[in-house]
Amino acid sequence: MAYNILVVDDSATIRSVIAKTLEIGEVPVSELFQAGNGQEGLDILKNNWVDLVFLDINMPVMTGTEMIDRMAADGILSTVPVVIVSTEGSTTRMDQLQAKGVRAYLRKPFTPEGLKEIVDNILEKADEQ
Amino acid sequence: MSNSNPEEIYSDTVREVLESMAFVFTDPVDASELAPGPGPFFKVSMHYTGPQKGCLGLAAPVSLAIEMGANMLGADESEDTGLAADALKELLNIICGQFLTRYYGETPIFDLSVPLIQEIERAEWGNLATTEGALLLEADESQIIASYSVEPA
């Protein structure tokens, strides 16, 4: 089974690094969507089926936190797994985000192995359900 | 907050992030050894606000930023200065996140501004190296200026 994955980050460099990491890790990707901020991410989610979202926090136009709040308020989007990929390391912030339903937190700089492990865990659980 | 001084923490953080993300190895040098090369240069800066405030910066020759961007992507170097600028902004973003937890600890929450970048000429580059809180780093045949300004406790 291949997955549709959305990467939301205002850095084209990080979006490309994540795309390349998924490719190297042989994650079966059907379609890789990319967005530069939370609003663009929501627009993609409303028009496409997405299995997993990689989401930055600190972005212009709409932050990752705002996007999570908007997803939580939507019956269908609230079920889409979200992995935060951010430079921030505050455990207080992480706890707040996990309380909002975020599945995992990957801190930049991340390793390909770290990202692959998180993807495998989340998508394998999704397959089991 | 760490007992170490912010200069030491910032210098170590910059060097570690540049090494792990962009495969650029640096050594601190004295400001009197400033030898920037022909330029032009990129200067990127960002602010953080929370229990305390501060501003962090990074400046590098465009040619080095291109090399760092290519290294981050595992790609061949191109003349795409847009990609180089994006890479430099992201490097500072990562440096900022790492610096905040190393200096202030993992509990406080800080809001980070979006990094702002501009191209500067040789004269401004020279001024940057002599401002308070500026650290000069040597990378192969290039130099990098890392700057920080933290609100005193």
Describe the protein:
With 129 residues, chain A is α/β, with parallel strands linked by helices. Chain A is built from five helices and five strands, in the order E-H-E-H-E-H-E-H-E-H. A five-stranded parallel β-sheet of chain A has the order 2-1-3-4-5, sandwiched between helices. In chain A, strand 1, helix 1 (12-24) and strand 2 (29-35) form a beta-alpha-beta unit. The mean pLDDT of chain A is 92. Chain B contains four helices and seven strands. Chain B is an alpha+beta fold and 153 residues long. The interface between A and B is medium-sized, with 22 and 26 residues.
Task: Map the helices and strands.
The complex is a heterodimer of chains A (129) and B (153).
Chain A: E1 3-8, H1 12-24, E2 29-35, H2 38-47, E3 52-55, H3 64-72, E4 82-86, H4 91-99, E5 104-107, H5 112-128
Parallel strand pairs in A: 1-2, 1-3, 3-4, 4-5
Helix pairs in contact in A: 2-3
Chain B: H1 6-22, E1 27-29, E2 41-49, E3 54-61, H2 62-73, H3 81-104, E4 111-112, E5 116-120, H4 122-129, E6 134-139, E7 142-150
Antiparallel strand pairs in B: 1-6, 2-3, 2-4, 2-5, 3-7, 6-7
Helix pairs in contact in B: 1-3, 2-3
